[in-house]
Design brief:
CATH class of chain B: Alpha Beta
Radius of gyration of chain B: 13 Å
Largest sheet of chain A: 9 strands, mixed
Distance between the termini of chain B: 10 Å
Number of strands of chain B: 5
Largest interface: A-B, 22 and 18 residues
Strand order of the largest sheet of chain B: 2-3-4
Structural class of chain A: alpha/beta
Number of domains of chain B: 1
Strand content of chain A: 5-15%
Shape of chain B: globular
Strand order of the largest sheet of chain A: 7-6-5-4-3-2-1-8-9
Largest sheet of chain B: 3 strands, antiparallel
Oligomer: heterodimer
Structural class of chain B: alpha+beta
Order of helices and strands of chain B: EEEEHHHE
Strand content of chain B: 15-25%
Chain lengths: 378, 100
């Protein structure tokens, strides 16, 4: 069996931002339970041996770990391609220089909006101005630079303006991703789900931007699966391409896999990554086609989308082994259509509030958002 | 973006690099597949593709690269070599894997 292509290392769940669509689980890992430096270093070596090419350092906010430079150096020594996915908070010119010196190849900086008030309102923190400053610092270093924008009902109408703003930051790459409804995003789905009209328009805006920036900025986009006819090939298929390790060392086939009951995730403190990938029951559970129900089992697309997302089937249908309801062939597709109908009927309008603290944002958004909180002690 | 010029200095773009070869001791052999890593992806190259890309070190000009290739592929028409190298590099430039 081929090894994984990429390792997603969620090195901490701590984060100065409180984004309403955070993909972290609702139950987060406390700082005291985070893996030690030497555990991560061992995992990176095992990953490289197993054939992993890319390492994605993410969180939470990975800069919250004081040993980040050490981790980047270890990954680089193992031959992994190092990518840092960050909000930018906690970065300084000196720290960035250290990270690049340690062998970091790529930095991915998140933006919430082109406008500071909306951006800070979504993030639950005064962060936008800091990100602007940081993108100038990044361009002074020799490192690939991606800006990432998550889009949803509250910012999609300004997509053109936002993309043009992001162009001025001169990234090498831009990622425009629709919210995926897991974790905190699912909690906030009613206010985040775009209308069909918004989605259709956004596809045109992105296509235009791709044309305008051809050869200068590579623009990748992630479509919203609630509006698709077929499900996404989540994580490239269960246990086929990616492995995610959470802050405490548990290895998961996907960010959200913790929501599936009855799965026992093994920990890199107890087992080798190779064993986890090849032998562990959790990674084998939905690998291949034996678990598939109809209509997937006899569908031509089963080798393309692998039945869609197991976690979405769990979250929306209560059955992880069902066809992803995003597929129009799913007998339960109705639940998606019901969610979309509810969206079209709503008349919510964004009302960005300014505040200086998370408490302030939380108070001004009462009844609006469930802001992602920070992990509690054990 | 235009095709590479005679004096262009093609090189891997920032954030793009060769993956370590499994047998790094082996002599250069273009028939063996090698991998270039870039943000969020990887591309495997072999044969002429690998031979061209290995020469793109940011120091050799396009003219020098084509001259090198002519030594390696002695039976191929030089005009065709240049044409193929141009097309290949232009495609990679659009993907932001190569700069020149």
């Amino acid at each position: 069996m081929p090894g994984p292509l990429a390792l997603i290392a969620e090195i901490t769940h701590r984060c100065p931002l409180h984004c309403v669509y955070c993909s972290n689980p609702l139950q987060m890992t406390a700082a005291q339970r985070e893996l030690a430096t030497e555990d991560w270093v061992r995992v990176f070596q095992q990953a490289a041996k197993l054939g992993v090419l890319h390492l994605h350092l993410t969180g939470g906010e990975p800069l919250a770990r004081p040993d980040l430079t050490e981790l980047v150096a270890a990954a680089s020594h193992s031959g992994l391609y190092g990518n840092l996915i960050t909000s930018g908070l906690g970065m300084t010119g000196t720290r960035l220089q250290e990270l690049v010196g340690a062998g970091l190849d790529h930095i991915q900086l998140s933006f919430q909006d082109a406008r500071a008030d909306s951006a800070d309102w979504i993030a639950g923190a005064k962060a936008h101005a800091r990100k602007l400053e940081l993108s100038r610092i990044i361009r002074q270093q020799r490192i690939a630079f991606t800006v990432n924008l998550v889009v949803h009902r509250q910012n999609l109408d300004r997509l053109e303006e936002t993309i043009r703003f992001l162009e001025t930051l001169q990234p090498d790459r831009m990622e425009i991703a629709h919210v995926q409804y897991y974790g905190w995003a699912l909690e906030n789905r009613a206010a985040l789900m775009p209308t069909r009209e918004q989605v259709d328009k956004s596809l045109l805006v992105v296509a235009e931007a791709q044309k305008r920036n051809a050869g200068k900025i590579r623009i990748d986009s992630v479509a919203p699966d609630y509006y698709a006819r077929y499900p996404k090939a989540c994580m490239g298929g269960w246990g086929r391409q990616l492995v995610l390790i959470d802050p405490a060392g548990f290895a998961l086939p996907c960010h959200a896999a913790g929501v599936i009951p009855g799965l026992n995730f093994d920990n890199v403190k107890d087992c080798s990554l190779e064993w986890i990938w090849k032998e562990s029951p959790a990674f084998q559970k939905f690998r291949g086609e034996d678990w598939m129900p109809e209509p997937c089992r006899s569908c031509d697309r089963r080798k393309e989308d692998f039945g869609g997302c197991r976690c979405q089937a769990m979250l929306l249908l209560g059955n992880a082994a069902a066809t992803d309801p995003a597929c129009h062939l799913s007998p339960d597709h109705q639940v998606m259509e019901d969610a979309l109908r509810a969206t079209q009927a709503q008349t919510l309008i964004a009302q960005p509030a300014s505040a200086d603290s998370f408490r302030g944002f939380e108070q001004s958004a009462q009844g609006w958002w469930n802001y992602r909180v920070n992990p509690m002690g054990k | 973006m235009a095709r590479p010029q005679d004096a262009s200095l093609p090189r891997l773009a920032v954030g793009c690099k060769w993956a370590p070869l499994e047998n790094s001791e082996a002599e250069f052999d273009a028939t063996i597949e090698a991998t270039v890593l870039f943000p969020e992806g990887a591309v495997r190259v072999q044969g002429t593709g690998r031979a061209i890309l290995e020469l793109c070190d940011g120091r050799r000009s396009m003219l020098e690269i084509v001259a090198e290739l002519q030594k390696q592929y002695i039976l191929v028409n030089p005009v065709r070599i240049r044409e193929e190298a141009d097309q290949f590099l232009e495609k990679l430039q659009e993907k932001r894997i190569v700069d020149y």
